[in-house]
């Protein structure tokens, strides 16, 4: 029973982190699915969303507002607005002027934007870790006294529920809305969609905005979960989310979700049963192993070259 409780605890921890990875990974996979490029500034947008949420929470506390639902909603809305605006700006500044050129040029442009945003936050907020308030406290405990007890915190439940809501809303948006159908058309054939009257520039901008908004949600959730943020907060998470997108199949939204969960669980299991020092080795080793047998990722589809 103790072994089962310990395994369940690691599984819960892994699904928690994996859910956040999935939210960030969707931004990578949507942009790649639409224009065939990787947005390497996406991790920094996630980081800016976390900082924006923290500033909003601090401002509300200064005004004496202490009702938790209001604090969470205002922080989430502010983070999504600022991150979405940042995602739109990245597309206009770093991608649109170089779209259609050699694929190395947008890559360098995105890396430059990533470095710019990192240093901007360094200058604006400092390089030190900043504590993030634990707004959602408490947990359910499972197990007998004097032995290992499995814990399911309210924060973990919040992450699960929020991720499920976001994924469901995104799926409905892509499948049911006019803009979602236009996104699918552009991902299939950008040139033909343009000829059919779809405003492809608007759709590409909308893709960056949607991905940035989901990253902001993850920024708020993981900020509260870890309890601190710093200017490099987005670099590591962005790298892991990009790995999750590749693992699940870059360009596939369900693949990004699946890849994020697999990556989170593999990290948690490695930390729990081996050592935290090996979690990245196991995660990236798993990525290499899967790509050796399925180069397009778990749910990715091979590109068909049009002649």
Main structural class = mainly alpha
Strand content: under 5%
Which ranges are low-confidence, i.e. pLDDT below 50, for 5 or more consecutive residues? none
In this structure, how is the largest beta sheet organized? 2 strands, antiparallel
Helix and strand succession? Answer: HHHHEEEHHHHEHHH
Record the strand order, biggest sheet.
1-4
Cα Rg: 20 Å
Number of helices: 11
How far do the termini sit from each other?
Answer: 60 Å
Number-wise, the strands total 4
Mean pLDDT: 88
Question: Key terms for this structure?
Answer:
4% strand, 11 helices, 307 residues
How would you sum up this structure, described in words?
The protein has helices at residues 2-35, 42-62, 68-95, 104-125, 154-176, 178-188, 190-195, 200-226, 233-248, 253-273, 279-293, and strands at residues 130-131, 139-142, 150-153, 228-229. By secondary structure, the chain is mainly α. The protein has a domain at 22-230. The strands form two sheets. Strands 1-4 form a two-stranded antiparallel sheet. It has a two-stranded antiparallel ribbon with strand order 2-3. Strand 2 (139-142) and strand 3 (150-153) form a beta hairpin. The longest helix has 34 residues, at 2-35. The chain is globular, with a radius of gyration of 20 Å. The termini are far apart. Keywords: Amino-acid transport, Cell inner membrane, Cell membrane, Membrane, Transmembrane, Transmembrane helix, Transport. One of its GO terms (molecular function) is L-isoleucine transmembrane transporter activity. Belongs to the binding-protein-dependent transport system permease family. LivHM subfamily.
């Amino acid at each position: 029973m103790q072994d089962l409780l310990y395994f369940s605890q690691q599984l819960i921890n892994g699904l928690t982190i994996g859910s956040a990875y999935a939210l960030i990974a969707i931004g990578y996979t949507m942009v790649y699915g639409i224009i065939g490029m990787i947005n390497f500034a996406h991790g920094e947008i996630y980081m800016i969303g976390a900082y924006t949420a923290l500033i909003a929470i601090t401002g509300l506390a200064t005004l004496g507002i202490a009702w938790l639902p209001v604090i969470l909603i205002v922080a989430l809305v502010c983070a999504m607005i600022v991150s979405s605006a940042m995602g739109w700006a990245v597309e206009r500044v770093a991608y649109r002027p170089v779209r259609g050129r050699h694929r190395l040029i947008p890559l360098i442009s995105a890396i430059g934007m990533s470095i710019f945003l990192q240093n901007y936050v360094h200058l604006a907020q400092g390089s030190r870790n900043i504590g993030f308030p634990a707004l959602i406290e408490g947990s359910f405990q499972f197990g007998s006294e004097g032995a290992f007890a499995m814990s399911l915190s309210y924060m973990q439940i919040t992450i699960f529920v929020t991720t499920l809501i976001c994924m469901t809303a995104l799926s409905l948006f892509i499948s049911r809305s006019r803009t979602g159908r236009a996104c699918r058309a552009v991902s299939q054939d950008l040139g033909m969609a343009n000829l059919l009257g779809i405003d492809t520039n608007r759709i590409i901008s909308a893709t960056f905005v949607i991905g940035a908004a989901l990253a902001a949600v993850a920024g708020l959730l993981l900020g509260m979960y870890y309890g601190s943020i710093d200017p490099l907060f987005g670099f590591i998470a962005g790298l892991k989310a990009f790995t999750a997108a590749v693992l699940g199949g870059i360009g596939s939204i369900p693949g990004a979700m699946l890849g994020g969960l697999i990556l989170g669980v593999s990290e948690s299991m490695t930390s729990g049963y081996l050592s935290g020092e090996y979690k990245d080795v196991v995660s990236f080793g798993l990525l290499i192993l899967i790509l050796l047998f399925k180069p397009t990722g778990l749910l990715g589809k091979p590109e068909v070259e049009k002649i």
